[in-house]
Design brief:
about 10% strand, 7 helices, 2 domains, mainly alpha, 5 strands, three-stranded mixed beta sheet, two-stranded antiparallel ribbon
Length: about 170
């Protein structure tokens, strides 16, 4: 490994470098040791890479638990603002504070069983924006949103990323 780094004129910063071994939940843990210049590189079970929390089981629970408070704050903001703002401003708040956070890396974590929490929060914020009852069908709200004469309709994340091919 040292030769490859030297040949390509690169230096490995051991303070910022971790290794991760991806395993299944039923697989027994076996320590992985990698050394560089006679120093052992630390093995991580959970690490942050480009803003996404990754764990060695790839279940995305840590990442989702990290972004839920941010999304809850966005939901609270919309709830406080819908009395005094029109739909265009609420839509801007939604895209700036909720959609940007929720859609980042969704192609990785969106199919996780834990992602249901995020889609539940998204349904809540959409219902608040549409001044709908908490039990209102998500499908009815999507139809309402698409019926608006608006160049930038709000798309539900789960529809946008996972059911887009079927439509």
């Amino acid at each position: 490994m040292y030769d490859w780094f030297s040949t390509n004129k690169l230096v490995l910063n051991l303070e910022k470098t971790n290794i991760m071994k991806f395993i299944t939940i039923n697989q027994p843990y076996c320590a992985l040791t990698v050394s560089y210049r006679d120093k052992c590189i630390e093995e991580a079970v959970n690490l942050k890479f480009l803003g996404i929390q990754i764990d060695n089981h790839l279940n995305w629970k840590n990442h989702i638990d990290q972004i839920i408070p941010k999304l809850s704050i966005a939901c609270y903001m919309v709830r406080q603002m819908y009395h005094i703002c029109n739909n265009d401003i609420l839509r801007s708040i939604y895209f700036a504070y909720f959609h940007s956070i929720a859609s980042y890396g969704i192609i990785l974590w969106g199919n996780s069983s834990y992602s249901r929490k995020i889609f539940t929060l998204q349904n809540r914020i959409i219902r608040i924006m549409m001044v709908a009852h908490p039990r209102t069908s998500r499908r009815k709200l999507i139809k309402k949103i698409r019926d608006f004469n608006n160049p930038k309709p709000i798309y539900i994340l789960i529809d946008e990323y996972f059911y887009w091919k079927s439509g």
